[in-house]
Design brief:
Helices cover 18% and strands 41% of the residues. With 101 residues, it is an alpha+beta fold.
C-alpha cells in the first residue's frame, strides 16, 4: 500500500489508478453518486484504506476507501469522516467498513 501526505493527494492518485466512481454511505449499502447503483456489503471489496487527520484539528479525521466491485465492473472512492457512518449504517455495513486491511 502507498503512503500519502494528504487526502487530496490520495484521491488524485487513486483516480489515476482507475478508482473513478464516487460512493456515498446509505443505511445498508454504498451508492454510486452518478448512477444510483447500490452495492451491499457482499457486492464490493475494500482494496485500500487510508486515514487522514488534520494537524490543526485533531478531531477532524477522514477515512478514504478504495472500493471495487468486479461483478459490477466498478472501482471508486468513499470518503467518510471517521466513525460517522456507524450512527446510520447497518451493523453489516459498519463491520465491512471497519474490518482491518
Amino acid at each position: 500500500m502507498r503512503t500519502y501526505s494528504t487526502l487530496s493527494e490520495a484521491i488524485n492518485d487513486l483516480t489515476k489508478r482507475g478508482y473513478t466512481t464516487n460512493f456515498n454511505v446509505e443505511s445498508d449499502c454504498i451508492v454510486c453518486a452518478d448512477n444510483l447503483i447500490r452495492l451491499h456489503p457482499d457486492e464490493f471489496q475494500i482494496d485500500e484504506t487510508y486515514r487522514f487527520q488534520e494537524m490543526s484539528d485533531l478531531d477532524n479525521e477522514s477515512i478514504l476507501y478504495a472500493i471495487s466491485s468486479p461483478q459490477n465492473n466498478m472501482k471508486g472512492l468513499l470518503v467518510n469522516a471517521y466513525g460517522v457512518y456507524s450512527e446510520t449504517a447497518t451493523t453489516e455495513l459498519v463491520e465491512k467498513l471497519s474490518a482491518p486491511r
